[in-house]
Structures are given as C-alpha cells and as structure tokens.
Amino acid sequence: MNWYAIFAIYVLFWTISAFVVLPFGIRTPDETGELLLRGQADSAPSNFQPVRVMIRATILSTIFFGLYYANYVEGWITVENLPGYHAAD
User: Fold this and answer.
1) How many CB atoms lie within 10 A of CB 82?
2) CA nearest 23: which of 52, 64, 62, 58?
3) pLDDT tens per residue, range 20-43
4) For the residues of 11-57, what is the DSSP string, one character each?
5) Model confidence at 79: pLDDT above 90
6) pTM: predicted TM-score of the whole model, two decimal places
7) Contact present, 27 and 49 (Cβ < 8 Å)
8) Cα-only R_g, the chain
9) Mean of the pLDDT values across residues 1-16?
10) Are 45 and 6 within 8 A, CB to CB?
11) Other beta carbons within 10 Å of 28
C-alpha cells in the first residue's frame, strides 16, 4: 500500500470518526440554563468545542485505521470470508 492510499484511507476514517464523536458532550441552552439569542434554534449547541472533537476523532480514527492496516497486512478477513461470496469457477 503506497503513502497516498494510506493518507486517503486515514482521512476517510478521520472524517467518519469526527461525525461519530460530534454529538458527545454537546449541551443545548435549555440544558445549560442560557438564554436563547434571537433567531437561535432550540437545538443549537451552547458549548461546542471543536478541538475536543478533533482530538477524539484523531484517537478513534487511529485505532480504526490501525485495525484496518493490520487486517490488510495479516489478511485476517478477506473477501472470501464474506457471506454470499462465491468464487468464479
């Protein structure tokens, strides 16, 4: 696997991980007791911390990419292991 593929796959894992960890720890103004600003949605977060989301996404994506790469090198799960796959005779 070349470096471009490694980088591209890691970025995909990071993006998916960022969307997975995004809702954790978010509180609405109703939960924190803050007043809503004019035009603000009720569900808008009042304590969004993007650095915390990036750190969590980096940790999660590193774990998932490590598992993916170990599977790529060791070949633990291959296409032949998937249900419904029949090799062409």
Assistant:
1) 8
2) 52
3) 999 999 998 888 888 888 998 988
4) HHHHHHHHHHHTTTT---HHHHTPPPPTT--TT--SS--HHHHHHHH
5) no
6) 0.81
7) no
8) 20
9) 96
10) no
11) 15
* Gap between the Cα atoms of 22 and 87, Å rounded: 40
Q: 50-58: long-range contacts (C-beta < 8 A, 24 or more apart)?
A: 52/25, 53/18, 53/21, 53/22, 54/18, 56/17, 56/21, 56/24, 57/14, 57/17, 57/18, 57/20, 57/21, 58/14, 58/17
CA distance 29 to 67: 38
For residue 17, give both structure tokens.
Answer: 């991980």
Number of C-beta neighbours around residue 6 at 10 A: 14
